[in-house]
Structures are given as structure tokens and as C-alpha cells.
Specification:
Helix content: 25-40%
Number of strands: 16
Strand content: 15-25%
Number of domains: 2
Shape: globular
Largest sheet: 9 strands, mixed
CATH architecture of the largest domain: 3-Layer(aba) Sandwich
Mean pLDDT: 89
CATH superfamily of the largest domain: Gcn5-related N-acetyltransferase (GNAT)
CATH class of the largest domain: Alpha Beta
Distance between the termini: 24 Å
CATH topology of the largest domain: Aminopeptidase
Number of helices: 15
Radius of gyration: 22 Å
Length: about 425
């Protein structure tokens, strides 16, 4: 039953992996290395990109191809090359259409922050802006860059800052975000960011560890405490009369696209800050490129579409990424539909022998009742406007994430197991 479980977090683990056969670097190779930028999928030297250790679903060439030409998120891939011709690393940069919708309503903040956000949202209207993102605007986790295993943290940050300077000039964007960095990666990189950056923490990403030797969801349930198992049975009972279908055909996903987006907007439309967003054709494109590593499940009540979920599987890291969901709020209340979707993500991960399910950074308590642990993530932000950074630093200090105490869902022996694997157990 015991297995080797990689440390928490869904993204690149390049500092823990070894690439064989690489040419040692001289100091001049690092000093004189230069970024090469690719705005078109076909231009990227994919063989070199895929040779870097680590990786994630969001850095998979198939995902990047599916999302090329996206209207709300523009992508550039950068790869840095040494004088000796060796590729040293790569980064995902995005120009994202962002929208702030009174975030103070979603955070425990001071009266000063509430006044400041009210000024930014006169009459409750959204505040729209473009954001330059290193990493993934449509997901949470360590999906920012890939490096050769011998690139030191200080050099990584120097090159990331170069990437921002070059892409900001290319796109003309003044609001920058480098996201997301888990505890281990953040500790290695944090001392090397320049003074122009402000470090921010938001709600943690929730992650369910799995034993890859499990062959059914019953084994996962057996590892939970009685109260958590009762919760799972209640979820399945309340949603038992819904018709659940997994859809693979791209033509059907093309047809359903507008309906799925309408359901998605009912959920995502309530978010405090929206970065990017899905488009109707995304589902078919992702299914075409990712094949069985992408799933869409629909939920119908008496023939009427009332919800959907979609997710991605990254074989290299054994990770399920819960991508996006959509549902009617009343049906969700009656049928525990969202919780049923979380169960299905876990069941899908078990069927594939995955080691983790990354569930995103919303509904923290609900996810913890099913065994999810919080993983703190750090983001580094810069705003290139006069006097903007002092205001931003003040906002960060006065607007911490919601306090959150996870429920204890696992039996004691499994809590010990997950703690040994690196998860924080309250």
C-alpha cells in the first residue's frame, strides 16, 4: 500500500530532477544568454522545450496549442539560449484581460481598503485592465517556467525580470504578476526578487493527495474518517437522480460550447477578480489536442443541462488539474452538485493512478471535507505607474486572505502519511 509520493504542488519540480547529458555552463554562458520569443505555436522548438525537467498540464505543448489564438489570453513562449547554443530554460508569458469586481467583498479588510476599492469601482462597476502574467492566468499553481536543473535561483529571477521588461515593451502593459510559487520554490526564489516587486499571498490552492495504488474510489473513502465518509455518501445520494455523461466527441463539445459557457459564467461571474476566461470553442480544442487527458462531464436533470466540469491530466507529474466548472445555483444547493464534481475529479484521478488532484483556490472548507489540503502560494506584483507601488504594498498589508482552518477528513494513519509526504496537517 505504501508508495512514493512526490511533494505537494502541481508544477515543475526541476530542482528535484536531473537531466543527463547536459553540457556544463561557463560563467559567460549565463551572462550572455539571450531570450528568444515565439508568438506562434509552430515557431517553438518543441523538442528543446520538452527536454526541460518538470512540466505541468498548463505547460504541455498540447494545451498551449489548443489555447493559441485565444481571444482573452494572448500567449508568448520565451526560451533562453546560451552562447554555446544550449537552451537553458523557458517561460510562459501571457497578456490577460482582467476584471476586478469589488474584491473587498470577498476578503477580511479594513475600512480604508473598502473605501479605496469603492473608489476603483464607482457605482459597483467592474474595473478592467490588462495584466502581464508570468505563469497561468486561467489556473493556479507552479506553471511559470522550466529550467535546466543546474540554473541557480538568483539567475532564474534575473532572467524572469528580463522577460517582464521585454514583454511589457512588446505588449505595452504596466501591471505585472509572476505567479504562483509554492512554499519550497518561494523560499528559494524570494530573496532574489528586485525591490520593484511586492510579494502577495491570496487564498491557498487546495490539493487532494492520492495513493496511486488505489484502484477504486472505495479505497479512498476507506482512508477517510467516518464523518467524511458520511459526507461523501450524502453527496452521492443527493445527486443520484442526475444523468451524468462524459463527453469525448469534439463535434458534440463544439455544439455544447455556448451552453457550457453560459453555465460557467454563472459561477465565474461571481468571482472578485477575473483573469481571462473560457471561450465556447475551448472545450472542443482541448479535447482534440489532449485526447483522454482532457475530460468534460455534463449533468442533466430531466434532460436539461444544469452543470458541467472539465479537467486535465498530466502524466509526467501524476496530476489531475480541476480546470473549470459551471452549474445552476439552485440545482447546486438541492443536489450538492459542486461537491459531486469534486468527488468525480478524485474518482477520475484514481482511475488514472494519479498522485494528486489540484482543485483550485475557492470553496476551501468544502474541499477540505473531502481530504484537500491547503498549499500556500506566493505571487510577485509590480505596477509601473507613479505612486502605485506604495498603494499596492499598503493594500497587500491591509487585505490578507480569509482565515481558514481545514476540516480533518483523513484517518490518523493517513494524516501521518500525508504529513511525511510534505503536506501541512493542522
Amino acid at each position: 500500500m505504501h508508495c512514493v509520493l512526490s511533494p505537494p504542488m502541481s508544477g515543475p519540480l526541476s530542482t528535484r530532477q536531473v537531466t543527463e547529458g547536459i553540457i556544463p555552463l561557463a560563467p559567460a554562458d549565463l551572462k550572455e544568454a539571450r531570450w528568444h520569443w515565439f508568438d506562434t505555436y509552430s515557431e517553438v522548438p518543441w523538442e528543446a522545450w520538452e527536454a526541460f525537467p518538470g512540466g505541468s498540464a498548463y505547460l504541455d505543448r498540447r494545451y498551449l496549442k489548443a489555447m493559441s489564438g485565444h481571444g482573452k489570453v494572448q500567449c508568448r513562449l520565451g526560451m533562453i539560449k546560451a552562447n554555446n547554443g544550449s537552451w537553458l530554460g523557458g517561460i510562459l508569458m501571457q497578456a490577460v484581460q482582467s476584471e476586478s469586481r469589488s474584491p473587498a467583498d470577498h476578503m477580511d479588510v479594513s475600512i480604508g481598503v473598502r473605501i479605496a476599492t469603492a473608489i476603483m469601482h464607482p457605482g459597483g462597476r467592474p474595473f478592467r485592465f490588462r495584466t502581464l502574467v508570468a505563469g497561468q492566468g486561467l489556473g493556479s499553481g507552479e506553471h511559470t517556467f522550466l529550467w535546466r536543473e543546474d540554473i541557480p535561483p538568483a539567475q532564474q529571477i534575473q532572467w524572469v525580470e528580463q522577460a517582464f521588461d521585454q514583454c511589457a515593451k512588446h505588449w505595452g502593459i504596466r501591471i505585472w504578476m509572476a505567479k504562483d510559487f509554492g512554499p519550497e520554490l518561494d523560499a528559494a526564489l524570494a530573496p532574489h526578487w528586485g525591490r520593484r516587486w511586492a510579494r502577495a499571498t491570496f487564498d491557498p490552492v487546495m490539493e487532494v493527495p492520492l495513493d496511486p495504488t488505489w484502484t477504486s474510489a472505495d479505497q479512498w473513502q476507506a482512508a477517510l474518517r467516518t464523518k467524511a465518509r458520511t459526507k461523501v455518501r450524502s453527496i452521492l445520494t443527493r445527486s443520484a437522480d442526475l444523468d451524468v455523461e462524459r463527453i469525448h466527441e469534439t463535434a458534440e463539445l463544439e455544439r455544447l460550447g455556448p451552453q457550457l459557457i453560459a453555465l460557467y459564467d454563472q459561477v465565474y461571474g461571481r468571482a472578485s477578480i477575473v483573469m481571462g476566461g473560457l471561450e465556447a470553442r475551448d472545450f472542443a480544442r482541448l479535447a482534440e489536442e489532449l485526447g483522454p487527458d482532457f475530460t468534460v462531464m455534463t449533468y442533466r436533470q430531466e434532460g436539461r443541462l444544469v452543470g458541467f466540469q472539465c479537467g486535465m491530466h498530466h502524466r509526467g507529474s501524476g496530476t489531475i488539474e480541476a480546470y473549470y466548472v459551471g452549474f445552476e445555483s439552485e440545482i447546486n444547493k438541492e443536489r450538492a452538485l459542486y461537491q459531486r464534481m469534486l468527488f468525480e475529479f478524485i474518482a477520475w484521478g484514481i482511475s488514472l493512478g494519479a498522485v494528486r488532484v489540484v482543485m483550485g483556490r475557492t470553496a476551501l472548507e468544502i474541499k477540505s471535507t473531502l481530504g484537500a489540503f491547503p498549499i500556500a502560494l506566493s505571487t510577485f506584483v509590480h505596477i509601473n505607474f507613479p505612486l502605485a507601488m506604495p498603494f499596492l504594498r499598503w493594500m497587500i498589508r491591509k487585505a490578507p486572505p480569509h482565515p481558514f482552518k481545514p476540516r480533518r477528513a483523513w484517518l490518523a494513519e493517513w494524516c501521518e502519511r500525508w504529513q511525511e509526504a510534505g503536506y501541512r496537517i493542522n
